[in-house]
Amino acid sequence: xxxxxxxxxxxxxxxxxxxxxxxxxxxxxxxxxxxxxxxxxxxxxxxxxxxxxxxxxxxxxxxxxxxxxxxxxxxxxxxxxxxxxxxxxxxxxxxxxxxxxxxxxxxxxxxxxxxxxxxxxxxxxxxxxxxxxxxxxxxxxxxxxxxxxxxxxxxxxxxxxxxxxxxxxxxxxxxxxxxxxxxxxxxxxxxxxxxxxxxxxxxx
Length: 204
Prior knowledge:
The chain is built from 5 helices and no strands. By secondary structure, it is mostly helical.
């Protein structure tokens, strides 16, 4: 078997096992041809890498890339990490709307609606709404300050989570690009070997 036939046999072997006669001839040729042995090692390495790459789980920064059918059920922690950012954004929006609705723009701070009509005011000894105005204003101010602190804490937590996801995305992209460049170089080396046959003295 010559090197050209050996290359064809190596490429055909990627699709499945060949007949025993051709396999024996290929093994005999590889035993005496170092270049074809190197080519076979490169082909085996590339097919193994391609198979592993195909079976890799999708990265955490892109959960929608995972196939939904026949996929194992994700645990509660994985689901929480996946939907944390949308849930946090929704909660922050609800808190902001709650603060806006709690203190309408048309009502001055500390002013509470009258609980009784003027002609039906409670008897002496009971607190009136006007007497509670200052205390009500303090309560509203304290509630607004507490909501503002909670909103700021949630915003900081959301920003930290988004920064972490951005870092994971950048690292994943660097990993993918570097391996794609390496694989492309290996493919070009294999293509060069296939395009340039060896000298006649190297053939069996």
